[in-house]
Amino acid sequence: MATQTEQALLRSSLDRFLDQQVAPFYARWEEQGIIPKSLWQTMGQAGFLCVDMPEEYGGSGGDFELSSLIIDVISQRGFASLATNLSVHSDIVAPYILHLGTKAQKQNWLPKLILGDAVGAIAMTEPAAGSDLQSIQTQAKPCENGFKINGQKTFITNGQHADVCIVAAKTNPQAKAKGMTLFLLESSQAGFMVGQNLKKIGLHSGDTSELFFQDVYTESILGGLDQGFAHLMTELPRERLILAVGAIGACRGMMDMTLEYVEQRQAFSKKISDMQNTRFVLADLDTQISVNQAYVEKCIKDYQSGTLDTVSASKAKLSTTELQCKVADACLQLFGGYGYMQEYPISRAFLDARIQRIYGGTSEIMKEIIARGLFEGPK
What we know:
Shape: globular
Mean pLDDT: 95
Number of domains: 3
CATH architecture of the largest domain: Up-down Bundle
Order of helices and strands: HHHHHHEEEEEEEEHEEHHHH
Helix content: 40-55%
Distance between the termini: 27 Å
Radius of gyration: 21 Å
Strand order of the largest sheet: 1-4-5-8
CATH topology of the largest domain: Butyryl-CoA Dehydrogenase, subunit A, domain 3
Number of strands: 10
Strand content: 15-25%
Number of helices: 11
CATH superfamily of the largest domain: Butyryl-CoA Dehydrogenase, subunit A, domain 3
């Protein structure tokens, strides 16, 4: 586990990097609707990608606590688009390959992901299948020495920039969940087509795309044949935990900017921070953030010890992302009319927060998973 000194050094280094390489340009990226791909290499060279990957692949050999700290800091600084796209790359794609890949797959892709020479994406969601992964229609049919993949994915984070994409496809449609397989596809392959960069109400600079597969040939199965759904269920707790980490970071960032604002803004001849309503609202939010943060920190320790279960990760994701939207709404309210203006970062934080209750499993799905734990026992 990372020491406090290691965490402090990483936080300080990352803050300096964000000051120099992100903060001056982020508003323009948001207007343009995409973060430049060159930033991935810049971050990789600075050591901020895939920090918990083993040294044998070029990683720093850190732990998940350090990886989560990166998402926490970026989220707290209000760069939600970057935090989201980076978490997919470092905390979903790279761990999938590390845990499920063959020796050749790991040697080929992990060094590139660590350096930012390749950007990673994962393609599960389809136009008619979001949280219900068993209903995906993309198919991989056997052919000579491999498979041909046909289908469509949507809402794919990093879709525009991705060099490698983990794709979930049906290899045995009659077997429902037990007939899904994961594949590693390169975006340069024939038949792999990237659609438009989708326009969203928030996370404007985080590229989100449609992907199309037309007879894409591959031999590159990730994990076991027809074991894709089981692999997804094993890896999803980390995905949901990193979303919870980002939610807490965003909450802290919104609180910081709101505390600064209410100390400066006056109404009725006194600071807004001197009004009881303001003080009580912020006291209540700070308490809820602290309680949720303590639970997330427990889940991080459980993940590192290999004991984090699906229900616990679902609780963390549900509670923190619901709280993030509550904090965004309450803090924007304290800004008054200025909170509705784009020049104030709280307005962007408000819009960026809303997706957190949807992707990575909706709040409703999280409640169903938690309820199953109550009535059917732990899974």
